[in-house]
Amino acid sequence: MRLFVALNLPKKDRERIRRATGKLRQTNMPVGWTDEGHYHVTLKFLGEVRRERLEEVTKAMHGVAESTKSFTTKFSDFGAFPSVRQPRVIWLALGASPELRLLKQDLEWSFGDIGFEAETRAFHPHVTLGRAGDRDGAGAFRGLDEILAELECKGPIKVSTIDLMESKLSPQGSTYSVLSSARLAP
To answer: Does domain 2-183 have CATH number 3.30.2320.30?
Structure first.
C-alpha cells in the first residue's frame, strides 16, 4: 500500500482554488492539471507500507492529532518546483504557520518512532495544481511567471482533521482513498 498523511481541503476551499486558477488552467502549457477533488496538502509521505502495519500507522497518526489543537492558516503564493522556467510541479502554497510546522514535526517524530525515515527536505506546504512532463522545454512555459504573479487565492483555511491516504498509481493518474481520519483537538 502506498500511503501518506494529508490535509484534505473542504469543498469550498477546493472550489476557491479552481476559481482562482481558471486563467492558468486555460493556457496551452503542457501540464496535466490536478482534478479539483484531489487537492490536498501532503504532510508526511510514508511510501510502500505492508498491510499488517496499517493499525500501527493509524495509531501513530491519531496520537499526533489528539495532541494537536485545531488551527487556522491561509493560502499564500503560487509557484513551481524546481523553477517557473522549467516546472515539474505547479503549486499553491499554504502559509507556513507555526501550528502547521509543529503538526508536520510531530508527525515526523511519531512516524520516526515506528521506523519511518524522516524527511530531510525543507517543508513547503502546498497544493499541487498540475504536473509538467520532463521533455517540455523552457519555451513551453513562457509567461508562466506573469500568470502566477497575477493569481490570488485569499481567505482562511480551518485545519481540524488529518487523513491517512492510500495512493494507487495507474497510467490514467493517481487515485486517492481516505483510509482513516483523525480529528485535531478542539
So the answer is: no
